[in-house]
Each structure stands twice: as structure tokens, then as C-alpha cells.
Specification:
Rossmann fold; Orc1-like AAA ATPase domain-containing protein; about 50% helix; AAA_16; 19 helices; HTH_AAA; alpha/beta; P-loop_NTPase; three-stranded antiparallel beta sheet; 12 strands; single chain
């Protein structure tokens, strides 16, 4: 025991001397505790060897004092729990308030950005190359004053309240150019224009770009454990965009501003399937509602007739604006002005009339002719291109065709039959050319065209392929003057009628073979026979009959 005490004192002295390693107490020894029989807490008597000396550092004194503090009580434990709960609650409250404030700010920011999208200036005008403050495009060929321009200007400026509009016409007649010119006159204030697409996701992105709406893709509420509504379909996103647009329109109406103008260009690019029809239905429902309330004026631009058919079903406030080729006088005047701008030459009235006879009043054709050095050759190239397009899509293969191409030949032969019917209709017309209006193309009602082709589903495809066109009056005619010239030329080829008739006969034979079933009795091969016995009700034989194959007699030759 004396040896142990001496070893402990020597280790304590070494510790006081500042050695880095503290003394280690033996586990078998326990400190001597004096128990006082009082009501106070039990205190352990400090070892005399561990009494601090005056030279001991203050940090060691404080640590030793903390060790000798009294043990935690119930009150101190409750106070610490309350302090922890208050800290947690304050942290959650601050996080919740920050998340709610961001959510409110984000909703305000969406409406603010969408309202800025209708301020003066529009990306569609910049892409089209329209110079601000001037009365023309950067490229003069995009601008021609048409009779419909004044009406389009009135609609785009916000005066056509209470209706929504559908522009229908062939490709290249100047529908988009008129809309852009009307937007230029008001510098795009209150207008938003975008191109349609068959894919709903791309349609959604283009709509968001026009409205400056991100569809909650820039929402960071997930940092505050707030989930955004982006995880959904494209059609629901489009519906949400229309909801935001409606709020912006209501705000503008309170400030006595003109209604918004939403322009959907190339609406015919939407696919005629289930998703495309749902999209058109959503757009039409909003257009009807906005037209009734005077919030937004919707303008749809389409090259195909089927869009009008889909919208006509539920249309009550829709107005159709047909856009056709230019008449003769405006077309010749535009060509003369274009030619003078690009080449500085004055075309004679005879040359202008020859050009019009070849390409008609289609603005897209006139633009190309105006910029071509050899405009006569280009007129021939345009007519050849239209004829080649028609032949590549709808040429018939004759009576020698294989049965594997029957479906395609049904499509092609129906187009040829309709083209021949238009040529025959042209021969019956008294006037096919007006001195002032120009070409008068033959046309057939849509129901008669379907009856002529004996098919009701091909006409829409022909319209989409720019072979035939269907106007707002449901009249079918050639897509353009060069296409009608191609019809006339092809139908006048030698042997065309016989070739078409042979193709139709071959198609009928193939269909007849497909509907015919052949029944063969193998027992009759090689002169086999069947003997039939007839019996009465009591089983007695009444007679017999023989069933066999008789060889065919040779046909007699004509004398």
C-alpha cells in the first residue's frame, strides 16, 4: 500500500511538471468517499494529491470546476428540451415562410413575364426581318397590298372583338405576310405569334416561348420541399399556359387596354389524330370563351381544309377569311414592281401576261419569277416541277401492275380520275379566263369529288400534298394554275384514257380475286367419281346417281 501511494505521488508530480501524457489510475483502486448523512447531494472528497497548486493554469482550473459541477436535474432537462424545440420550430417557420414567399413571388413573376411578352416588339417581327418605323419589309417581296389586308389590320389592332378568326388558303398566297404586316403597323403591341407543330411537346415549347412562360421548369420550390406541377402531359401544360394568359388579359382589361391577340400560324401542321383533335378542341374552347368575354382574340392560319372541318363542329363565334391567289391586274402590277426593284427593267404588258398565264397569281411563284435572271425559263421550271410532283405521287402503273402495289395504286388512280374530271369540267365551262380577274379554275363540290373517286378519305390527303385544294366553300379544284396545266397536259397524252382504264380494271380484278374463294374436291382428280344412293324414309333404295367431272369440249373457232 505504501508502494502504491509513493507511485501515485510521483506520477502526480510529473503531471504538475507539464508532461504531455496524463497519469493513468489503476482500475482496481477506488477513491475514498466520505459519506455525510445529510439531505444535500453526496460529494466526493477530492484527493489531496490532486489539489491545484498556485502555479496550475487557469484552463485546468475551469475544467476541473466543470467536472465537479452537480449532475443534471429534471428542471434543467426540461429547459434544454424547450430550447431545442423552440430552435427547431423557429428554423421550420423561417424555412416555411421563405418557401411561401418564394412561391408567391414566382407566381407574380410568371404573370409579369407574360405581360412583358405582349409589350411593343415581337420576336416574330425580328425573325421576319421587319424594319421598325418603315412601311416595308427588309425584303420587299414579302409585302403586297391585298384586299384582305385592311380587315387583317383591324383584327390585329384589337378592333375585331367578339370573334375569333380562321385564315384558309393555299400555300404561298400571303396569309402569314398579311399578319406580319398588320403586326408591324402596331409594332407587335398586345400580340403573340408562334408556329404550330404536330408534336405536342414542341407545340408546348413554342407556345411558352411566345408567351415567355417556362411551364414551371425554372421553379426551385423543391429546395423548400414544395413540389412544382411540371410532372404532367404537354396538353395540361398548354391548358395551364392558357390559364395564366387569361389572368394577364383580365389585368389588361382592368387598365382599359386593348384585348390580347394570340396567333397560331400553320395550324394545319397539327396531326389529324386523337392528340391533335384534343389540342384543337382546347384551343377552340378557349377561343370561344375569350371571344365572348372580349379578353383575347385568337387567329388561326391554315393551309388545309380539315382544320375548318374540325372547328366547324363547335364553332359559334368563328369567322372564316378565305385567301386566294391574286387577280390578274394586282399580280401583274406586283410582278412589274418586283422586276423593277431587282433588275431595274420594265416588263411589257405582253410579257407580264405570259408570266401570269404560266404561274397565275400565286405570290410565292411571282416572288421567284421576280428574282430570277431568266424569268421565262423559271416559269417553265415551275410548271415542270408541279407536273413532276403530281406524277411522282399519283402516276398509275397500268394493267401489268403487281398486286402488292394495289393500295398505292388505289390512291393514285383516284387522283387521276379526279384530275380527268376537272379537265372535263373545264371543257364544259363557257369562260376559263377573265380579262380582269384572270384564270377561272374548274371546281367540283366536295361530295361530288368523293363520288367520282368512289372514296371519301383520299381528298384530305391530296389537299395536304398540295395536289388539290378545298376552299372554305367546300369546292375542290387544282392547287394552282401550274397544277391545272399539268392536269390538262397529262390527260391529253396519247393513250392516257386506255392506260387509266386498264389500271382501274386491274385493280378491280385484284379485288375480285381477293374476295373469291376456290373449293377443290381432290377425289375427283384423275377421273374420280362419287356414287350417290337415294333412300326413302324406310331405308329402301329409290335410285342411284353418279357425280364425276366431265372434260370440257374444245371451243369452236369462228369462221
Amino acid at each position: 500500500m505504501m508502494l502504491y501511494r509513493n507511485a501515485s505521488r510521483s506520477l502526480s508530480s510529473l503531471a504538475r511538471a507539464g508532461l504531455p501524457r496524463p497519469p493513468r489510475n489503476h482500475r482496481s483502486t477506488t477513491p475514498y468517499v466520505v459519506r455525510n448523512f445529510t439531505q444535500g447531494p453526496v460529494l466526493a472528497r477530492p484527493d489531496s494529491l490532486e489539489q491545484s497548486s498556485p502555479e496550475e493554469p487557469k484552463s485546468r482550473k475551469k475544467g476541473r470546476e466543470r467536472e465537479t459541477e452537480e449532475e443534471p436535474t429534471v428542471r434543467s432537462t426540461l429547459l434544454k428540451m424547450m430550447e431545442t424545440a423552440a430552435t427547431t420550430f423557429a428554423s421550420l417557420a423561417i424555412l416555411g415562410l421563405a418557401g411561401y414567399a418564394y412561391h408567391r413571388y414566382y407566381k407574380y413573376l410568371i404573370l409579369e413575364k407574360m405581360e412583358n411578352a405582349f409589350n411593343p416588339g415581337d420576336p416574330a417581327l425580328e425573325i421576319a426581318g421587319i424594319e421598325e418605323g418603315k412601311h416595308r419589309f427588309n425584303h420587299e417581296e414579302h409585302w403586297v397590298v391585298r384586299d384582305e389586308q385592311a380587315r387583317i389590320d383591324r383584327i390585329v389592332s384589337g378592333l375585331g372583338v367578339g370573334r375569333y378568326y380562321l385564315l384558309v388558303g393555299e400555300k404561298g398566297t400571303g396569309k402569314t405576310s398579311m399578319i406580319l404586316e398588320a403586326m408591324r403597323k402596331i409594332n407587335g403591341e398586345g400580340c403573340a405569334m408562334f408556329e404550330a407543330h404536330g408534336d405536342l411537346e414542341i407545340f408546348r415549347i413554342r407556345l411558352g416561348k411566345a408567351l415567355d412562360y417556362e411551364f414551371h421548369e425554372d421553379y426551385i420550390g423543391s429546395l423548400f420541399s414544395i413540389k412544382g406541377p411540371r410532372d404532367t402531359t404537354a396538353l395540361l401544360d398548354i391548358e395551364r399556359a392558357f390559364n395564366k394568359l387569361e389572368k394577364v388579359a383580365l389585368t389588361r382589361r382592368r387598365t382599359k387596354k386593348s384585348p390580347l391577340i394570340l396567333i397560331v400560324n400553320s395550324a394545319h401542321l397539327v396531326r389529324d389524330d386523337h392528340d391533335g383533335q384534343d389540342l384543337l378542341e382546347v384551343i377552340q374552347q378557349r377561343a370561344e370563351q375569350w371571344a365572348a368575354s372580349g379578353l383575347v382574340t385568337t387567329i388561326l392560319n391554315s393551309d388545309d381544309y380539315w382544320v375548318y372541318e374540325r372547328l366547324k363542329r363547335y364553332a359559334t363565334r368563328m369567322e372564316v377569311i378565305p385567301v386566294k391567289d391574286l387577280p390578274k391586274e394586282p399580280a401583274m402590277e406586283a410582278l412589274k414592281r418586283y422586276r423593277k426593284q431587282y433588275f431595274g427593267e420594265e416588263l411589257s404588258p405582253e410579257d407580264l401576261e405570259k408570266v401570269y398565264d404560266a404561274v397565275g397569281g400565286r405570290l410565292s411563284f411571282l416572288n421567284r419569277v421576280a428574282k430570277a435572271p431568266d424569268y421565262k425559263k423559271l416559269c417553265q421550271d415551275i410548271c415542270t416541277a408541279e407536273k413532276t410532283w403530281f406524277l411522282n405521287k399519283c402516276w398509275i402503273l397500268g394493267p401489268e401492275m403487281d398486286d402488292d402495289v394495289m393500295d398505292q395504286q388505289k390512291y393514285a388512280s383516284a387522283a387521276m380520275v379526279l384530275a380527268k374530271a376537272l379537265v372535263e369540267e373545264e371543257k364544259k365551262m363557257k369562260h376559263v379566263y377573265h380579262p380582269e380577274l384572270g384564270h377561272i379554275l374548274p371546281e367540283i363540290p366536295l361530295h361530288e369529288a368523293r363520288q367520282i373517286m368512289t372514296r371519301a378519305d383520299f381528298v384530305q390527303s391530296y389537299d395536304h400534298e398540295n395536289i388539290f385544294t378545298i376552299d372554305s366553300r367546300a369546292m375542290v379544284r387544282a392547287d394552282s394554275v401550274p397544277m391545272q396545266n399539268a392536269f390538262r397536259e397529262i390527260c391529253n397524252w396519247p393513250g392516257f384514257d386506255e392506260h387509266l382504264e386498264g389500271t382501274l380494271t386491274r385493280i378491280g380484278d385484284i379485288e375480285s380475286l381477293g374476295r373469291t374463294r376456290e373449293l377443290t374436291i381432290k377425289d375427283l382428280w384423275n377421273q374420280g367419281k362419287y356414287q350417290l344412293v337415294m333412300r326413302d324414309g324406310k331405308g329402301r333404295e329409290q335410285g342411284a346417281a353418279e357425280f364425276s367431272v366431265v372434260e370440257r369440249e374444245p371451243e369452236k373457232e369462228d369462221e
